[in-house]
Specification:
alpha+beta; five-stranded antiparallel sheet; four-stranded antiparallel sheet; single chain
Length: about 160
């Protein structure tokens, strides 16, 4: 008795290798899309964190400087700049007895506020802070830059009109 099999089931070795190759390509493409999306999400989170920090600092500085009766822009070490009107440090008087200030701490990469003679951090992830005082228009221009990881440099600026003295 001779039995012939016309219907052979299963895959050949070549078919199995081809299926595995296609499966590997699809999985690799999905993984690449996922990693790219995650990197983009992480970078945007860093940008948002820096922007929020800089905005909060600008808002706080603007509110306090707006109330100042006099301002003095200082250089890197806090020395008063007489021939220039811009620098990384600002001292201001709120009254005859009350004074305050803001400066950039390059080592800690943060903006600091002078509170009761002590310097307290206001914002972090800062790479540069600059004040420009225009005595003619009685305004202070504030420019601040920040960066965290690979967020890219983010720059924000504002002008503050001092109250009339």
């Amino acid at each position: 008795m001779n039995i012939e099999r016309l219907d052979e089931s299963g895959f050949t070795f070549v078919e199995a290798i081809m299926a595995l190759t296609i499966f590997a390509i699809v999985i690799s493409a999905v993984a690449l899309i996922y990693v790219t999306g995650y990197r983009s999400y992480y970078r945007e989170q860093q940008q948002i964190e820096v922007q929020e920090s800089l905005r909060i600092a600008l808002d706080k500085m603007s509110r306090n400087i707006r109330q100042a009766v006099s301002v003095t822009v200082c250089g890197e070490n806090g020395e008063e700049l007489e021939d220039q009107t811009d620098g990384p440090w600002l001292e201001f008087s709120l009254s005859e007895t009350e004074s305050s200030g803001y400066r950039f701490d390059e080592e800690q990469q943060e903006i600091e506020e002078k509170v009761g003679g002590e310097w307290q951090p206001v914002a972090s992830n800062v790479t540069d802070l600059n004040f420009r005082y225009d005595s003619e228009s009685n305004t202070v221009a504030i420019t601040v830059r920040g960066e965290k990881g690979n967020s890219g440099v983010i720059e924000l600026s504002t002008k503050v009109h001092l109250r009339a003295t």
